[in-house]
Design brief:
Blueprint: E1 18-24, H1 26-29, H2 36-48, E2 51-58, H3 62-75, E3 79-83, H4 94-102, E4 106-108, H5 110-122, H6 132-139, E5 143-145, E6 149-151, E7 160-166, E8 173-179, H7 183-202, E9 206-215, H8 219-231, E10 238-251, E11 257-271, H9 274-294, E12 298-307
Parallel strand pairs: 1-2, 1-3, 3-8
Antiparallel strand pairs: 4-5, 6-7, 7-8, 9-11, 9-12, 10-11
Helix pairs in contact: 2-7, 3-4, 8-9
Amino acid sequence: MVIISEIPVQQSVPSEVNIELLSIGNELLSGTIANTNAQWISTQTTKAGGTVKRITTVGDRHREISSTIRDCVHRGPDWLIISGGLGPTYDDKTLQGLSSALGLRLKLDPYAVEMLKKSYARHKQRLVSNDNKLNDIRLKMARIPRGSIPFQNPIGSAPSVFIEVKRGVGTTKTRIFCLPGVPKEMKAVFSRTILPQIKESVGKYYFVESMFETIDVSESMLAPTLARLVDSYPTNDIYLKTHPRGYEMKVSRNRKIRSKPKLNIQVVSKGKDKSRVEARYNTIIDTLKVEINRLGGKMHFTNANRTTPE
């Protein structure tokens, strides 16, 4: 059997892509595991030009998963990316919740079964075992909502799942992707299958980000300048954020202790026109340097990240 995992790519004029993330797992709510998946997906999405509007976390409960998915679809994001809950154990309930939310029955998908066989063969395990119960447990990962499309997990076992649903009045649709919760598997699927589609939907996009450390200048001292800069550009073109880092303690020659505030400043310029993105970025940096120097502080460059279309 030929494994088919082609996901239809949106054929549309490049535009803003609004995305919601749904993370599933009791371990996330209890604090046992940090939600690094949502952080990583958000970072990759932002640098590609997508906009993450909301991140929601729920536990491994069928009703909560189902109602949360319905709420997400009702809000009408372009994309809903779900991570976690695709495995074979009793508490992996994402696909059951998705099925209930969309009113679609689960079915044993032959392509998903082939993907499972391929995954187990890669790890030199058999899908079919002498223990029929174990076999049924594994096949749980191949039972997906009717009308959905499975696609290969290149590292783990459970196939990922895609489905497109109508939202509101008209022909607009929300694209729903269900990804594994294991970070290494999630990253592999996202990078191979989803990120290229986000870039395709957004179109040409440029992103410049830097982080600077300042000493002896507080947030309140810089607040007027930051507010003026933010008001000077459209909301989606820049992002400025200060991150307090405590105080640096200095002992003077006369043994007096002086504390100097430390502050990190995040500067982001983004958009579809490279020259404008670069010009905005340089103007903001130059303005901050002048103001920090005027206030008697020091500014140190820490890192930069530039993204350009491939």
